[in-house]
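Hmm, how's this folded?
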Amino acid sequence: MKNNRTKAAIFRVTEKEKEDILRKAGKVKKSQSDYLRKIVLEDNIAVVDSTKLLKQLNKISAELNKSGSNVNQVVKQVNIEAKRGELSDMTIEAFNEVVSEYLTTSNYLKDCYMKLLHKI
């Protein structure tokens, strides 16, 4: 069913406000009319700056890669020492520290992801 919009809603804005509306509509790839309708008529709208979002996702990815590398290095060392029968307290302590850091980072990333989902 086609939605026939026959009524106009007119309001006044300054030149700066008009520019801001057009800029924000462009960021979410909407026409001015679609953008304003969405803002006014929907309860939950998220305007996401894609540049900022990509920067944050890149930070999250870098943290995840860093944590994963640390875990892999420690696991490799634990396996080597375990095969030799030389598993030291220092290695076990390092392993526990890295796993703890990994879990902390994973939880942080999960929280960031959930916040992101709630904004979209």
